[in-house]
Design a protein that fits this description.
single chain, about 260 residues, five-stranded mixed sheet, 9 helices, binds manganese (II) ion
Length: about 260
């Protein structure tokens, strides 16, 4: 039995599937995914369907892209109610009309939020996969059940899996980042600067390791940093698989906790 961690699949369902085959993932293993299943890539629909029916030995954590997706669905429901649009939840045409209404209000700057469906994922789901508001609500509900992080002990070692950053020092984070939830989802170099645990390992994604000059740049390989003061190891396993077209080094990574071996697709 092994424990595997992946992150930032971003609609690259084929890579994800190849990885499951490569590691020989079975019912006896555990898989924890650190968020960002959707957006940017072309197979967000396949990822959402997979998430919906994922096996019980898979733990899905929340990424900022899921959080934003759920916020967009909330916004659609809010517009439907406040403008009395009476959208049929089971109609693709009605849902598309509601989507266009939200876009219209955003363009007119009639709402307090300034962006909606930033990556065009909902638009593509509506146009190509003929989804409905009912589907969106179901996925949004699933997202709301996703925890921000997961702690586990393995061979007397403490591991924390999170999308972007984790910290035990709530006060410090509130000052620098607004809220702990934002830190879990959006931290970048702050993850190493202000985050971490004493005598443990943090495994996160969020910042692709393919961008030169960025703190986590490592030619599309997993980035590893050891903080001697905290005795904390940081892993960034987002190797930017969705940017493969622009960055030949980009990959999907998976780490096996038992021996910290890393697999790539
Ligand atoms: Mn992210």
């Amino acid at each position: 039995m092994s424990t595997y961690i992946m992150s930032d699949i971003h609609g690259c369902y084929n890579d994800f599937h190849s990885m499951l085959e490569k590691i020989g993932f079975s019912d006896l293993d555990q898989l924890i995914i650190a968020g960002d299943y959707i957006d940017r890539g072309k197979q967000s629909f396949k990822m959402l369907k997979w998430i919906e029916h994922c096996p019980p030995n898979v733990l899905l954590l929340r990424g900022n892209h899921e959080q934003e997706f759920a916020t967009y669905v909330d916004l659609m429901l809010l517009i439907d109610r406040s403008k009395e649009l009476k959208t049929d939840f089971d109609s693709n045409i009605d849902t598309f009309a509601l989507y266009e209404s939200v876009k219209y209000f955003i363009q007119r700057k009639a709402l307090t939020v300034s962006y909606f469906d930033l990556y065009g994922t909902i638009n593509a789901l509506l146009a190509q996969n003929h989804i409905t508001l009912r589907d969106l609500c179901r996925w949004s509900e699933k997202i709301r059940q996703m925890p921000y992080y997961h702690k586990l002990m393995l061979k007397n070692k403490k591991y924390i899996i999170v999308h972007a950053g984790y910290s035990e020092n709530v006060k410090n984070i509130d000052t620098h980042f607004g809220s702990l939830e934002r830190f879990y989802l959006y931290a970048r170099e702050e993850s190493c600067q202000f985050g971490g645990v004493h005598h443990g390992t943090i495994i996160a994604g969020h910042t692709p390791t393919i961008i030169k000059g960025h703190f986590a740049y490592n030619k599309g390989n997993v980035f590893r940093y050891y903080d001697i003061a905290k005795d904390c190891t940081f892993y960034d396993i987002d190797c930017g698989c969705v940017f493969r077209n622009k960055h030949p080094d980009a990959k999907l990574a998976c780490i096996r906790l038992e021996d910290e071996e890393i697999f790539y697709i």
